[in-house]
Amino acid sequence: MTRPPALEARSLCVEIDGARLLHDVDFAAHAGRVHALIGPNGAGKSTLLAALSGDLPAASGEVRLGDAPLAGRSPKALARERAVLTQDHRVSFPFPVREVVAMGRHPWARSPEAERDDAIVDDALAVTDVSHLAHRTVPSLSGGERARVALARVLAQRTPVLMLDEPTAALDLKHQEDVLRLARTHAQRGDTVLVVLHDLNLAAAYADDITLLRGGRVVATGSPAEVLTAERIEAVYGQAVEVLPHPSTGVPLVLPIR
Amino acid sequence: MSGARTGTGTVETGASGAGTNRTPLDTVTAPPSGRVTLRTRRTLLFTGLALGLVVAAVVAAGTGQLAIPPGEVWASILRGLGLSNAPETVPNADSALWNIRFPRVAMAVLIGAALAVAGTVMQAIFANPLAEPGVVGVSSGAALGAASAIVFGWTAAGDLVTAGAAFVAGLLTTLLVYFTSRAGGRTEVVTLLLTGIAINAFAGGALAFLTFLGDSGSREEIVFWQLGSLNGARWQEVAVMLPLIAVAITGALLLGRTLDLFSLGERGARHLGVRVEAVRITSIVLVAILVCSAVAFAGIIGFVGLIVPHLMRMAIGPAHRPLLIASALGGALLLLLADLAARTLVPMAELPIGMLTSLIGGPFFFWLLLRTRRRSGGWG
């Protein structure tokens, strides 16, 4: 790949309260691709996502967004570059769904882009299948519905880089597939999509690239077929698995040996 | 219903229509039905509160030992503004109104608005409906400053020293609460409330000590600070308070849209481009100015900042710009009525207004807790 990565970490170390959570992480996500971050609990997936989004400072090394260092950019400039779906989908006060999704337009207030606010919000509500909830208040929704509303808000931000931390965690089967199809659509339009996933089969099916983390270090990075080998998964997760190619698509299928 | 008049044939658009295909750009101006009724509700509430405020102000000004009918109160206002020269129909009406009642009404309106707006801002930045200046100890810190001025005789230096001491102590307390309840760049709500308990406990003890130290005159004054009262309000005090409160409320309104984003949590707000720390410290200073202006002249009047924003949120939803306007109006109205009750409930005596608001506010707070626990399991 000749183009510089849209999002990159170089020898990134991150510390919280003196504990080193990421060790010399090198990472690159490219425009037009879905990049999945996988790894066991506590591997540092969310920490890496937080560092890449600018929430956590680098103890050493650096994060680059759009081939320029991320540190020192204003929150507003960042908000026009990248949108982040965190695992916390709560909204403290009873805002209607539509108003919450419209909050995603905040970075574009008083810019020419703001003219399209209403259309963009409607579109985000539609693609995440929450249009019918537009006038309900967020605290009255189920966990899965709230997660989709949060995703709608993130999509309404219309940024070239999307960072999604476990977007499928609270969702049913169909909505899990919907969300990842959406991620693919955005990648096809040229966006950079970074997604933290627990389900290795979802990662294998939808990601172009996978980075596997353990203990705050990168274990492997590459295509799903390269990263998801039975030996490596067993070594990292401590669970014996079988990896089979899907009979028609060839996508790796990860099956725990029970 | 007025909803029918304002609805422009957009019933049930937004939601269902957008489900299957993308909304074309030319429908941008057609608001979904829900927003029209919300706008109507806001207009109704603003108008109702404003009218209620005017009526309550006229009635409150006319009520007291010297009863003055509303018509005469109105005439006196016009006379005072030089818009009329009709003679007084009630002897001494002008003097009673302009020297005693009007400054008191003005003070009730200002303080009510200030406390309610302070509560709204505080709840917004801590993303929690339980955050209230009194609960976190700001008011008692300010009262401690006032009591120190009274007991140590700093008041000899001038009339406004007590108010100034309350102001400074309140501001310092606010900053203390803010910085001690933060850890690793975050403010934990539980820590915040516990800090409030600690501050209230300390201020209570210190106030008791000052009461013990002071002579009987000082004791009476300290009791005034603790119970709160608008008795003896003067134009001079209103003139000090007005610019502070006006500036702080304007500042809060300018933050309105940004405060909405805090309901997504600190990270969520930052991801949308908010300078979280800057907004937070600005808000804290605004809260301190509002609360300290109020406490400096009227003592501790608790729970206005808790009750009013909550009721207004139930009526018009949580969007902060309209909510702040409604809270200012509602707080002014509530305190005006509470003051009217404080000076008329018991004949020939004046109840402390802070006592009244606490008697109503305490149970309200409790109800709020129970309701929140039922709905979402409370706060972890």
From TrEMBL, chain A:
Keyword Nucleotide-binding: yes
Classification via InterPro entries: AAA+_ATPase (IPR003593), ABC_transporter-like_ATP-bd (IPR003439), ABC_transporter-like_CS (IPR017871), P-loop_NTPase (IPR027417)
Keywords: ATP-binding, Nucleotide-binding, Translocase, Transport
Domain ABC transporter: from-to ranges: 7-240
Cross-referenced SMART domains: AAA
Gene Ontology MF, one: ATP binding
Record bears the keyword Acetylation: no
Protein name in UniProt: Heme ABC transporter ATP-binding protein
Source species: Agromyces soli
Native organism taxonomy: Bacteria, Bacillati, Actinomycetota, Actinomycetes, Micrococcales
